[in-house]
Amino acid sequence: MYRYISFIWNAADPQATETAHFLQNTFTDMSSAWQTAYDGSGLCVLHRDEEPNRMQAYALSTQDENSGGVVVGKLLTRDRRPEAVSRNAHITVPEARRVIHTSGRALVEDYWGTYVAFFQRGPRKYVLVDPMGQLPCYKTGYRGVEIYFTYMPDVAACRFLDFSIDWPVIAKGLIYPVDHTRVPICEMTKIKSGECVTITPEGTVKTFYWNPQKITQTDVIEDVDEASRTLRQTILATVTSMAAPYDGAIDMIGGLDSSILMAALAQVPAPFKLTGLNSYEEDPGGDERYYVRQTCHHLGVPLIEHKAEVSRFTVHGDDMVPITPWPTDHCVAPTYKKFIHDRLTEIGGEVIFNGSGGDEMLYCHGKNYAVIDYLKTHGIRPPLFRLIMEASRMQQRSVWSILPSIMRDGFGKNRIEAVAAQPTSLLTAQVQDMVEAERQREEQTVHPWLEFRENVTPGKIDHIEPLIFGQYKREEAMVPEHFFETLRPYLSLPVIETCLRIPLWVLLADGKGRGLARKAFKDLLPPEVVWRSSKSLSGKYFWSYTLANLDKFRELLMDGELVREGLLDRASLEKTLNRDHDIELRDFAGVHSYVSAELWARKMKGETFADIVRSNVA
Is the model's pTM score more than 0.85? Predict the structure, then answer.
């Protein structure tokens, strides 16, 4: 598992300098695996478990005094041609100088990948996270030294660092979809995807160089055939670029997005070997084997099938689940991830490919945004009426029921739908007050990617919005022994930028979710797979798991940290999580996330796996 840790301090401060040297020695003494990637005046970067061409350090060597740095992660050269395969970067002295003299802008303009850059120019220090932020960057501090890191167990091992839970952030995550840009630990923050932090003796400034809104207005592709050809070329070239360092991989195949991904991976030249892995449930809504088998047979790819069995509630210890910056599943996911790791080892594979981000980037949503965007950019023209009919069919609603909102939003002020709350009767009234105060504080600062600028349309804001919340992140909730690298081509910069340049009504070609992607890859997949309309509803597995372990969950939660902090109502838990009581679906759906938050909170407060076992809940 590749990871890094960086220290930034004011080199003119003797006490901070002494502390920085103490921290460096602490980590190198803990393990000889920690190596120095960069050591400058007030900036030091350590890393470990480097694999050249996969995850490594790229030196920013300028040969100038007090100027230089390093990029950690995976960096590829940019080529604006959609069919061009990118190569692993090698940064020359002139290129390093350009990166540093542009305060990192050149890194975003000339390269792409999964990386964090640390560099300096005189007393100014910079931390730059790639636009997708899949290699996380967290920050804490100690005695005048800023500490940046990617894997929390590394800093948690330092007993002199104290961490405490930020309960309002936890509360918000129980009601709204989790925003991984906020860390529920008081002493930690997360550097956002695409954010550049400039640290000077006078203070800190945060900037975003990558501008997705501007991309939506640049070289727009409205012709369906051209868009289809460009999307296909980009996905094929990107997948080939990402697969290049590996000889074998598993594609986590299930839905249409991962089937298209498998079709692209099947084009990667030998000696690359591909295997499919499909996890299915007994419930028909969670079983996609009919389509998966067709795809694998058509492409000649061997398939591993894994049945998701409902198991007894078991809390896995630190040997399976490390301490994480956010609540994570301690029950089901660790065993499944170990299963994937073991299968990858068996076949001699080295990496997992995952279709995450396909729903959002290839665009599958049956909303009105495609019609609204067309109306705002083209006005009332003949294609508008076809688009209205397609939107009606996708939403399974009448034209007359969607037309008023289309007219209102098409001619009115730009806006997007607010994220809906998901409260349950198990939460206390205090939680809502806590969450509202937290939301009001957050709403004072709108993320620059979501501000209506650059003549951007509401649909393109909806297209961009999932990228800001950090939902797509490296598998940090894994111990190094079971770690496997996961690559997500749909969340790579070349694919994202291509999709952003294509209007939504073109992405929804033929009035179908991912319609353009279907058209682009229809010759590589069986027709039944290309034109399938069903999608797995895997949530029923967790309902079954919750029902099977209801007594243990009730016992765990009733006297737990979430009750003690006033987030969950003990009386409601006792009444609702009872097999003799009819449980509402909304209450049922939240229980598993409450259990994850409870176990995480106990671990954060110092409880060990053995403590939880002794409490008779595991």
Answer: yes
